[in-house]
Amino acid sequence: MHKTRAFTARAIYAARLLARDGSVPTPLRWMLLIGLLPIPGPIDEAMLLVVASLLCIFGREAMRGAWRRAETERFAKRLAVP
User: Secondary structure of 25-70 in the HEC alphabet?
Assistant: First the structure.
C-alpha cells in the first residue's frame, strides 16, 4: 500500500511540474491541467492518457526531468521539515 501511495503522489507531483514546464506546448499543458481536476467519470483519465502518450513520443526528456525533480523535491521537503 505504501509503495502505491508514494508512486501516485510522485506521479501527481510530476504532472504538476510538467503543467508548469515551458518546454511543453500550451495545449498539452491545458489538457494536463484539466486531467488533474477531480472530474467524475473517465474524461480526466482519458485526457491524461492522451497527454502521457503524446509526451512519451515527443517530450520524453521533459517527462524524465519532471519525474526526477518530483523525487528529489519530495525528499527535500521531507528532510526540511523537523
Answer: CHHHHHHHHHHHCCCCCCHHHHHHHHHHHHHHHHCHHHHHHHHHHH
pLDDT digits (tens, 9 = 90+) for 56-73: 899 899 999 999 998 887
Domain enclosing residue 65, as ranges: 2-80
Indicate the pTM of the whole model: 0.75
**Residue 12 half-sphere exposure toward CB, CA atoms < 13 A:** 10
How far apart CA 40 and CA 20 sit, in angstroms, is 24
Q: How far apart are CA 77 and CA 46, in angstroms?
A: 31
* Domain count within the chain: 1
The answer to whether 15 touches 62, Cβ cutoff 8 Å, is no
CA distances from 70 to 8, 18, 27, 53 (A): 11, 10, 22, 19
